[in-house]
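Issue: ligand-bound run for 1,3-dihydroxyacetonephosphate - logging full I/O for the record.

Environment: standard queue, default settings, no custom constraints.

Inputs:
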Amino acid sequence: MRTPIIAGNWKMHKTIDESVAFVKELAPKLATYTGVERVVAPTFLSVAAVAAALKETAIKVSAQNVHWEDSGAFTSQVSPMMLKGLVEYVIIGHSECRAYLDETNEGVNKKAKALLAHGLKPIIAVGESLAQNEAGETHSFVGGQVRAALNGISAEDMGNVVIAYEPIWAIGTGKSASSQQANDIIAGTVRASIRDLYGDAVADSVRIQYGGSVKPNNMADYMSQPDIDGALVGGAALKVDDFTELVRLAAEAKGV
Ligand code: 13P
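Outputs:
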């Protein structure tokens, strides 16, 4: 059975003080849901303070991006080596980074390999635009993103990889893919691509999240789908009560 994983991607929200106050309030509320992996992804600036605040808890910390080199002349960047010991996860390939920071499939692949080499776990985000969706290109485009991101990654390392399927048209828009639509793409495209590359054992054990306007009122629907193993959440993860409710609903739907 795949352990459900709910991650809050805070994007460019919360100061250091706000981030620490938030997780101090959140941690006790999430303490009982031990069957769900619970992750928060603050900005780089708040990562160390949040990691310190969550030290005695089971809540894990993620970064929102990383460079693939250990160090060097890369102004503004942060390396896997610097994140080691502070975070367990790093989100890479987010559609906002692909759109605004020119993140490429090749870069995502380099980052995934660098993270795995340092014992960190990538959450690799993939997803199609509205135009691609309407043109019927979702399967080929998202499948291509998955294959490119995983190029050269071993079956053994796949145990430390999480994929997040986030249709771009559903992010922050209030428009979400139906749970059936999301499950079909996650099973028929994302997991199927992994099956082609690695076979059944890896495909059946890799966790795949859905992301895009996940809220307490649609969470149960998503989590009742067999191939959706959790959620990557933006807006609703910025509120303690909403995030707690998302984790509770995941635990309930998955029976953990
Ligand atoms: P929203 O939940 O705000 O739509 O954001 C989704 C997302 O981009 C998470 O990475």
